Structure formats: structure tokens, C-alpha cells
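Many introductory courses stop at the sequence. We go one step further.
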Amino acid sequence: MRILGIDPGYGRIGFGIIDKDGNNFKLVDFGVIETNKKSDLNSRLLEIFDGINDLISKYSPDESAVESLFFFKNVKTAIQVGEARGVILLTLQKNNIPIFEYTPYQVKQAITGYGRAEKGQIQRMLKVVFNLKKNPTPDDAADALAIAFCHGNYRIIK
């Protein structure tokens, strides 16, 4: 099974693509979709739509895992991320890719066994799990990779 993990945002959207075969995981790719900071929000949402479609075309994921929204102190940022997340979910749905959602707590729990783990702990665990030479970066890409891995763990148990 190929899993596309997504860490929603509107300036930078993290993605992580992994393959799961039984209890084995293989890293396929990870990175970010960056939108143009000088563009208006509507143009940036279109960039997100195009970027997710490109990932789907290139990697043909079987399922997707998306981080659910968490508390934001800045209401404007929360609304913009919510709109971007809506575009991401719509794009996945239009491409008939099953969507699974996980809270940051669930992702941290799946990676480290501790739901309040810090980003550095998660990145170090991902480095070990996927046998990487260094911690995955940037943070958005590492988070998306962790979301994909969380889903893969859930699917093994199920």
C-alpha cells in the first residue's frame, strides 16, 4: 500500500510518501509544496490544488493521511490553513483517494509512544525508522512523513 501523508498549510504544505508491505515501511519521497508569498490567497489555493494533483499523478497513492487542525492563536492563520486544508481534502476526494485524519497527539504517539513528544524526537525516530543519514527536514515535510507513518501503523493494527 502506498500512503500519502500531508501536513496542511497555505505557505508550505508538507508531504511524505511511504510504501507499507506487511510490517515493513519504505520511504518513497518527502518534501514540501511552497506557494508564492506574493500571491493572494486564492492563487495560493490553486497552487496547492495543482501541487497535490501533481503528487497524486506522480506517485499514485492508495490512501492518504492528513493532520487534523489544531488550536491556533492567530485566527487569520487558522482560517487560511482551514481553507488550504479544504482544498487538499477536496483534491484527494476528487481523485478517489481514501482520506484518514489524525491529530498531532495521535501522530506523536504512533512515532514515539508519547503524545506530547517534541519535533526533534519525532525527526530522530523517523531517521531510525527509515534508515536516513540525517533527520528529515524541513519540519513540514517531517510532519507529513510522520503522519503517513502513523497511518501505516494504524493500518497494520486494523
